[in-house]
Design goal:
The chain is mostly helical. Helix content is 72%, strand content 3%.
Length: 115
């Protein structure tokens, strides 16, 4: 008898991390952590407004990077078409949503700073 080496199915993990964990971390945990870390717990001043705006933009960039990275990973690993399509649809929902957050952060910063 010979031993058969089993490999994980292509497209199921990204260097040891599963796709749901990457999505949860990139879309929820890291942006929320940045927002909480940059929040002004007292009366906000100009520096606090800028810090909060940069935190929301950084969180949006991380979320976009997470979903686009997962789509690219699935394409490179030659996952099934349905898997690529699912992650593509997720990316098509998340990217415009996060870009609107970046736009709103810029507009809100201008309003709060009086510009």
């Amino acid at each position: 008898m010979t031993d058969v080496a089993t490999k994980p199915r292509p497209g199921t993990s990204l260097r040891g991390f599963s796709a749901p964990i990457i999505l949860l971390t990139g879309l929820v945990l890291v942006p929320m952590g940045l927002a909480l870390a940059a929040n002004s717990y007292g009366p906000p001043d100009g520096a606090a407004y800028v810090r909060m705006a940069f935190a929301s933009v950084a969180g949006a960039a991380i979320a976009i990077g997470a979903v686009v990275g997962l789509v690219v990973d699935r394409i490179v690993r030659r996952a099934s078409v349905s898997t690529i399509a699912i992650f593509g649809v997720i990316a098509l929902v998340v990217v415009p949503w996060q870009l609107s957050i970046v736009s709103n952060a810029a507009g809100l910063l201008l309003v709060r700073l009086g510009g």
